[in-house]
Amino acid sequence: MTDHTSPDARDTGLAAQYEAYPYPERNPQDEHRRLLIGSPSHLREIDYWVFGAQRPRSTPLRALVAGCGTGDGAIMLATQMAREGRAGEVVCLDRSSHALSIARARAEARELGNIRFVEGSLTELETLALGHFDYIDCCGVLHHLPDPKAALDGLTSILAPGGGMGLMVYAPYGRTGVYMLQEALEQLAPCDEPPATRLDMAKRVMRHLPATAWLRQNGNFGDHLSGGDAGLYDLLLNPRDRAYTIGAFLDLLDGAGLETTCLMEPARYDPALFLPDPKVRARIAHLPLREQASLAESLSGNMATHVVYVTRKGRKPTPPDASSFEAVPVMREIPGVELAKQMRADHTLPFAFGTLVVPVPLPAQARGLLPLIDGSRTVGDLAAILATRGVPDTKFRTIWQETFHTLERLNRVLLLPPA
After folding, report:
1. Residue 183 forms part of a structural domain
2. What range(s) does the Methyltransferase type domain occupy (predicted)?
């Protein structure tokens, strides 16, 4: 087995790649016009999926972004914490000085005082002595490392009691076409050549890529193919790029003593959502959740990544009671009034799981209920308002439970933790 602390030839090539073409390609001047939002590491997701909406918002949050690259996740989380007046800090760790300089410039453009930067490798955590963290982000990193299990073990060792992580790895089926081209470019542009030479060869190949190449049929990579030199290099020339089926990823987590609190979005891993045939659904219902998730991945064919939130085994938080009239629902990002507008006349919400759009049924009353969710009103407040519209308490509870359960699984409506 390769010693994960010692760079091999591919690891040397990987370091050269991110120094030459920091990924993703970002311009700090763009921070004045938009904040990039995604998963993992959205603050409301961390509150809900990692801490079960039980950790008070007044408790400082110490977060590590392990392999921050040019800073998308770190900038998002630090900005959200600053906007909501949340105490704590975000530590950005990366071994690429070039990538860190871009992330730092983005933070300076936003005048973020709750973020700091450390140059170093996540495979050398002991020597870095960063302390312990309530939350750790490791997004798009594990699948490039010589020993992902050892890296996970290291991250788990600095996880504070009760803490959790947000992880993302590549998935194979949604990356169909990528690995074929990577194999071809291994021959035409070996990883021991300088990054600029390899990139030039990849561009030449892409200009004449046959119409029959599977990558041309795959709609998952618009951001990479239009993401400048860094995007193209990361997609086709990365010296080490492994992909995990959901089963293989869950095995990796299990071996590191971790368990999932959420596969993101949960409904994505439910094959019954896009298989309406009653006999098929009846058979699906008898399968364990892991097998259902594997089935969804195999059938949908478009999962290019897996995003999960995890805790140590046995430390998974108890799910909060969304039916409690004291609970405070909150839209994860899209305002309720906008989500309600997206509902069709048949009361379904067209929801995009990447390139797959599925009509998700909701109660008819959800159209009037969603605009009331503002992060301040309790479930009891919502019930009182609907009572004035002729919806009795018992009917409201049924409507609310169905609405919340459906939209929670789509990661659209969550619950706020106590102040």
Report:
1. no
2. 65-163
